[in-house]
Amino acid sequence: MRPSSAIRAAAVTALAAGVAAPLLRRRLKIPPPVVAATAASAPFALCILVPRSRARDVATCVLQMWAYVATYEMPNDDPEALERRVRVAYPVKADKFLGRGTTPTLRLQRALGHAGAFRRWEKLLVWSHWTWFAFPHGTVLYLLLRHPERFPRAAAHIYATFDIGVIGYWAVPTAPPWYAARAGLMDDGLTPELRRMMVEYGEQFWGSGWEHLYGVLGGNPLAAMPSLHFATSVTAARLLAETGRLPGLLGWAYAGTLGVALVYLGEHYVVDLAAGLALAEGIRRGAPAVAPLARGLSGSVQRLEARARS
């Protein structure tokens, strides 16, 4: 077999395995490290097989997120084992310290909320949480279409935030506020108790479809630290601000709204957001140091791509 044919065959195999492994992991009982490594190889395999184009850039990002989602969800493949490992108390203590004895979530809900009713601004907060699924990826797509010279760096920053953040979900699985409230750790003898407002409004808005929708998007309910909702939104806002004042204002307005929403709705602690912000800023400031390594990896893939077509 010619070297070019061997490279293409290996890349096709890696691509197929990377797509299939997350789908088959439960049925075949594939070890999580094997699933993660196999899925992570798929974007590189695609780049070896297919010439650079906008379509390939989009497909590469999709494959990257395919690997991320599998890695994010796998701790919850065994919910009982995950619950035995989950940390519940430490963020409660940290947020109670910040809130002078009561977590900021409870303070905000008690001051502004009304059980069973949702004001327009509360609905806005819920929708800002739901639309997060589109914001970081929409930012990458916007930059690909309108500022293609910025796309490689932007994609690297946003997807590095996802990938590094998911390590925390494996190393220190941490419960969100609504889970701690259900476990009794938020009880301070006062009322109302903490509400999970996203679910309350979801059941009202989506009706019978809510349970299925949440089942699809839930993935891993015990993955709160750091908040990747906030981390990726901050990264996206910074990248948008580099392109102009208006995109920057829109980006930061969304990130700020989402930050308030995550705390108010009971989905994240303030300390989760702080950790997410630290992650986003750490990646931004650390990027120049790892740039030579990234260029070396990119060069290796490009050389394999050229040999596969020779």
Structural notes for this entry:
With 310 residues, this protein is mainly α. The protein has 15 helices and no strands. The protein has helices at 3-28, 32-49, 54-73, 79-85, 89-98, 104-112, 120-130, 135-146, 151-171, 177-182, 197-206, 210-218, 228-241, 245-264, 270-308. Helix 8 runs parallel beside helix 13. The chain is globular, with a radius of gyration of 21 Å. It starts with a helix and ends with a helix. The model has no long low-confidence stretch (mean pLDDT 93).
Give the helices and strands, then pairings.
Elements: H1 3-28, H2 32-49, H3 54-73, H4 79-85, H5 89-98, H6 104-112, H7 120-130, H8 135-146, H9 151-171, H10 177-182, H11 197-206, H12 210-218, H13 228-241, H14 245-264, H15 270-308
Helix pairs in contact: 1-2, 2-3, 2-15, 3-9, 7-14, 8-9, 8-13, 9-13, 9-15, 13-14, 13-15
